[in-house]
Predict the 3D structure of the following.
Amino acid sequence: MSFESLTGTTEWTRDDLIAYADGLLAAVRPWASENGARITLPGASGGYGEAVDGLEGFTRTLLLAGFRIAGARGEGVDDLIDFYARGIAAGVDPQAADRWVRLEEHAQAKVEAASLALILDMTRPWIWDRLDAVTRQRVIDYLAPVVGDESYPRNNWLWFRVVVQTFLRSVGGPWSQADIDADLARHDSYLREGGWISDGDERSFDHYVGWALHLYPVLWARMQGAEELSNGRTAGDIARLDDFLQDAIALVGADGAPLIQGRSLVYRFAAAAPYWAGILAGAPSVPPGQLRRAASGIIRHFAGHGVPNADGLLDLGWHAEWRRLAQNYSGTGSPYWASKGLLGIALPADHPVWTAPADRLPAETADTLRVAVSPAWIISATADDGIVRVINHGTDHALPGALAGDSPLYARLGYSTATSPLLNGDAWAEPLEQSVALLHADGRATHRAGMRVRGIRLDDGVALAGSTATAHWIAPAATQTRHGSGIVGEAQPAGEVTTWSIVRGAWEVRLVRIDSIAADAAPTALRIGGWPVAADAVHSSAAADRAIAAAAGRHSTIVALTPGGTASVEERRDASPLGAAASVPVLTHPIAAGTWIACAVHLSDRPAASAPAVALADGDISITWPDLAVTHHRLS
């Protein structure tokens, strides 16, 4: 299924992207402070207060304005230059009524400082060079506290310090080679196989891989003086980006939808950033026309679903506003990190990418099956419906062996471009959709974070991945911090559970075995959850061996392939950014340790055809797929 048939339009051009960017920039102007230093957008303040909201509103739209100015080579954008230059002057003026929160006052200012430094470097002839000497020194003084600051979180934030210090060095400010070397070494400690990069020491694989950990090295390499600081690392950074893009290009749905997984999803089309980064860096393995199609398609997807809103603003949500999607650090200006997804407009009109032949996405052209070893993801895209599915056996925003809470954003067994994990309060305490859980007598479901990857491979045109979890119940602590990871609290082991997924097309054959039951645990049942479907209304049904939920061109089915299970549908309200009603087909089995239980899980835009059939014997499995193809596998 093609992008055109799903959206009713052809791929966006550079002019379309510029018009979209200009509309976003114009819509925020009425919300600027008197001196222009803060842009405080309407809505309830974020967890960090209005002063931070206003700073984010300025610096994150400055990113977009900077891309626009750079792509125009400073011509015809005088109003943007003047507005943001005036705001910078007021922001760094300690006496201004709307001056910025300083880096010493709030850690979030360290994030925003990186956007300021990047754009001052990128637009140097048009903004920095025109600032008066007093303002320049104030900018240097504002940024200087990053030097020697060891309080940065151990994740993608390291790039904020590298970028700021690189700019400071270029303008005669303070900087530290030791800081930069330490940060680059920290980045390298997060490198994983296949170009993947973990956002910290935990197994945190999400959109930050692309819109931060790959994007910043590319932008940094273009900053003044960066080559002298890089110690020759840029070629390696590009090679890793190139490896990553070969997986990432398969993660975009035929309708331009990105994967709905991971934290900070309110940044929406920031998901387009790594594709523009690949073009900017000249990554060789994915054609530039295909990278352009992915990036512009993601933006077009959101534009086609009412983004920005009727006031021209990016609110906290996915398609429409849905504040539950935000983390507690998200304020009204936070969604404008989406500006990164419009990096392409920094490429001038004569850049060859704008005339490169368009190449369709993998999800548009043929069924695609890949394994990404580092996150332990099976990636399955099907061309007849354009949906991309990820089956997850190694990403949980936790460390192996930890008895942590499952984050719905990371630890579910499946994510897709057509479904969202459930994100209401219960979803954090009770894994339901895309889960394998032991049920407590009081109804609580176990978590699987900290699971151990058993293996992942391609096998005769089929993909396999498996993991073993110490299934555990969590008694939530009274205070929770929602930065994306699961809930914290006292953990009680329930037993060891092994799960294997065998994927071909839209079908997953899921095999579950309770390896052991923990002493005094006494779980009452095993529950297996399928894909969640959400819309204004969802239609569902359950029979003896299967359950179905369907709405808005999405059909989720779970089918029992071995006896003993009971099919049903669990319904939730206000649990998904994709609709007020959400339904999850599930199977419930009695507790039986040491026995393989098999089911088939399906997601498409149409009802499932006949389900697969299985034959199991001592860890060997034969599967007869709906098209009558037969495959044989060994669970190792």
Summary: DSSP finds 15 helices and 20 strands in the chain. The first strand starts at residue 368 and ends at 372. The mean pLDDT is 96. The domain at 424-634 is CATH 2.70.98.70 (Beta-galactosidase; Chain A, domain 5).
